[in-house]
Amino acid sequence: MAPSPTPDQARSHLAAWRAARSTDPYAADLHLAAVNRRYVDAERLAVIERSARPFGQQVVAEIGPLVEGYAAHPPRLDKYDGLGNRIEEVRFDGDHHTVGDLVWGSGLLAAAGAPGGSFEQANLFYLASQEGEMGHMCAATCTTGIVRVLRRARAGELIARYGPGLCAADGTKALRGAQYLTEVQGGSDVGANAVVARPQHDGTYRIDGEKWFCSVAEADLFLVTARPAGASGGTSGLGCFLIPRHVDGVLNGLSIRRLKDKLGTVSMASGEIDFVDAVAFPVGVVERGFGLMVEGMLNASRWLNAVGNVGIMRRALDEAAAYARHRRAFGQTIGAFPAVQQLVASIKLEWLAALHTTWALTALDELADRAGAGESGVDPDGLLLHRFVVNANKLSTSQACSAAVRDAIEVLGGNGAIETFSVLPRLLRDSVVYEQWEGTHNVLTAQIARDLAKLGLLDVVTSEIRRLLQRTERDVEPLRRALDDVRTDGRRALEDRSFADWHMRRLLTRTVRLHQAALLLDTAVDEPELADELEAASLLLTRRELTPGYRPEDDGEYAKLVGALLGPDDPSGSDPR
Q1: How far is CA 3 from CA 132, 328, 330, in A?
Q2: pLDDT the model gives residue 1
Q3: 20 to 30 Å CA-CA from 353: which of 135, 308, 313, 537?
């Protein structure tokens, strides 16, 4: 056995681990390049690279160190100024604003200004999400959602007034948006919302009531649901309204009760807010308010939530694989141990699977955004597939992300739980919050169950998976059998409400796994240099998640598949000394 390293040698190994992170994460990410090529033509991809590549470099060189500094300094609420005037201002560390200017300066929100910018946004959001506790990604998401809601509602006057600020590429001039649905008595039961909207003679409304979970409490514009006086109960009676923080320079009926002390996304201000006689603009047909909120805001949030999770998983993989290559214990690098190799492989498997379904969703998101803006000729089956994938993929990726970050922390051991040692604690906190953001797993499951029954999505989804399996030369019979089982159980769920109530979540998980495995195989056909990794990922996913009774102990190919999946991320590298 080789001698144990001295303390100085051990510190040099840790320094080498930290130095191993690429300073150009966009260029270093070969699988990101592959999924971009799958959906985006060369000319457009060149445009994406011109903004994404330098922004990725900024994330490493500038944003990361700043976030590490201010993540420990949460925002504070100043309700009054020194003269006793009510101001309801949220105060942040100065570096928080510097990072926000860089995020907005990347063009992330400028890409939201017209339909067809989803991949531009996804690449930038993915790179930004690799730094935990940044505090700006919720604002970017909600601002995107407001733009889409206004566009979908054909709210020309509001777009003219606020659109340039919402889509600004200059962070110092940008308008930040927020969306407030949740009320204390309802939570996910939005139909129980009680905030009241009173119509005025000038076409505006006045809003009164309390919103319980208000993230981006410092926002300039709030998109809210409220119930017009005399409207019916449930979600069908809710309207959608835009409330500016200030009207003619005066605070607009806004009172922040307190900021919430959260587990994660601590550097982003979430609070409880009362509106008292606040001026609000109706968005679209008032009776269609909740539908607008779902189609424009919540769907955008669920899409970008998944993109954020994929970015988190990518950083977790980078941290764990590099650490395992440099950290020595028991006479060798810890990456030489099969147990560690399997942990790193599990992280990579979940990241690759989520990356492929999320980029497929990004293509569907562009379809839905174009359709929402009134473009004709949009594929109706694509819109139905979007309805399923946007919810099911959010459920799947958020679960996978938390597990992947925990695996990465295990690779680092006790060091992985130290705030000043690694980004992983920040990533873990963000991932847990992402799981609850825009619907718990059970709420999403219930929504998908309703959509399957109402819209006939089962045939659309299974047909898409079957289409993806056609080009590969690999044996896909196990996937076809799993697909037949999903169709059988899906039909039973449509016919038997009790069966659906008890088993729908597992059914959805299997369906997403099928979609992931099929996408990995289909991409491998066009990416020969990555084919071994992609095919190994698909095979392991199929065996682990979709094959009844599968035991790695009985699989003679298991170790070989793990090695193929790891590829250049194999942590069993040479001695770093």
Answers
A1: 37, 10, 8
A2: 63
A3: 135
| Token pair in block for residue 401 | 């992300």
Strand, coil or helix: what is 380? helix
Per the structure block, which two tokens stand in for 501? Answer: 């109530």
Distance CA 41, CA 19 (A): 34
- The pLDDT value given to residue 150: 97
pLDDT of residue 575: 40
pLDDT digits (tens, 9 = 90+) for 1-56: 677 889 999 999 999 999 999 999 999 999 999 999 999 999 999 999 999 999 99
Q: Work out the percent of the chain whose per-residue pLDDT is above 90.
A: 89
Closest alpha carbon to 39 in 130, 143, 123: 123
287-to-194, 227, 238, 280, 441 alpha-carbon distances in Å: 15, 9, 7, 16, 28
Burial class for 165, CB neighbours closer than 10 Å (0-12, 13-18, 19+): middle
Distance CA 52, CA 58 (A): 10
Whole-prediction pTM: 0.96
Q: Which pLDDT does position 544 carry in this prediction?
A: 96
User: Is the distance from CB of 529 to CB of 312 less than 8 angstroms?
Assistant: no
Structural contact between residues 123 and 32, judged by C-beta atoms closer than 8 angstroms = yes
Enumerate residues 6+ apart whose C-beta is below 8 A from 94. Answer: none
DSSP 52-88: HHHHHHHIIIIIHHHHHHHTTS--EEEEE-TTS-EEE
423 pLDDT more than 90: yes
Beta bridge partners of 215: 270
- Dihedral sign of CA atoms 552, 554, 559, 561 in order: negative
